[in-house]
Design a protein that fits this description.
Blueprint lengths: L14 E5 L3 H6 L5 H22 L3 E8 L7 H24 L3 E5 L7 H14 L6 E8 L1 H17 L27 E4 L18 E4 L9 H12 L14
Parallel strand pairs: 1-2, 1-5, 2-4, 3-4, 5-6
Helix pairs in contact: 2-3, 3-4
């Protein structure tokens, strides 16, 4: 792979977040139902997770199912839950063998009992793995996450376990679903849409964005390299003055 040679291992982001978009349109373009695209999307997830782990990226977070997705037709939601269950059952052994640590963020108590049970088993099995941490956002929204964090902080203050003056930008992230993980340095969105869709709203304050017209099932290893190279070619300022203007 030619683009792989352009990757600077010393300048890789620690944490990459992805909005996996375009499964339905990819399927429609092939005369198939939306679930056909979602199944193809699972293979893209597997592909990118393997590449990220190989490169040494520490965290990969993917947006699998938003809280708004519960409003989709019942047949599609049911199909998505079945695909999720099958994906965990079929890939868990390989994930564990590859030293991947699985983590799920979101309101997982809303998931069907069988799906939640299988996810809990997968998290427990891989919790001590030391390779890439694979965060899957399911029944998730950024606003829910921030509100949930605020409630937890309020509860700790109410119970005298936390002083108000201790609440700052260092403490607050520990109450988020991503815990003490670093914020994503790079956010990728596929399918040509130019929005963040209620995803990791607190964490992406200084993330670099990369948008591509490629639908998620077609997001290949080469496309991932393009995103990483784009990130590496940028001047990451995080609110500081550009080196060129000093």
């Amino acid at each position: 792979m030619l683009l792989e040679k352009e990757i600077n291992i010393e300048k890789l982001p620690q944490h990459v977040a992805i909005i996996m978009d375009g499964n339905g349109r990819w399927a429609k373009a092939r005369g198939q139902i939306r679930l056909f695209g979602h199944k193809a999307g699972v293979q893209a997830v597997k592909r990118i997770l393997q590449v990220a782990g190989k490169l040494g990226i520490k965290y990969l977070t993917v947006y699998a199912f938003s809280t708004e997705n519960w409003n989709r037709p019942k047949e599609e939601v049911s199909g998505l839950m079945s695909i999720l269950l099958m994906a965990v059952e079929s890939e868990l052994k390989e994930l564990h063998a590859s030293n991947v640590k699985l983590n799920v963020i979101g309101e997982i108590e809303k998931l069907p009992k069988k799906v939640k049970q299988k996810i809990d088993e997968a998290i427990k099995l891989t919790k001590n793995n030391s390779g890439i941490t694979f965060n899957v956002a399911i029944s998730y929204s950024g606003r829910w996450e921030i509100i949930n964090a605020a409630k937890r902080i309020a509860e700790d203050v109410k119970n005298n376990n936390l002083e108000i003056d201790k609440i700052d930008e260092e403490l607050f992230p520990s109450y988020l679903a991503t815990g003490n993980m670093p914020d994503p340095e790079l956010l990728i969105r596929t399918s040509g849409e130019l929005r963040v869709s209620n995803y990791l709203l607190y964490q992406i304050a200084y993330s670099e964005f990369y948008f591509t017209d490629v639908f998620w099932p077609d997001f290949s290893e080469e496309e991932f390299y393009k995103a990483l190279i784009s990130y590496q070619n940028r001047e990451i300022r995080r609110g500081q003055i550009s080196a060129e203007t000093k």
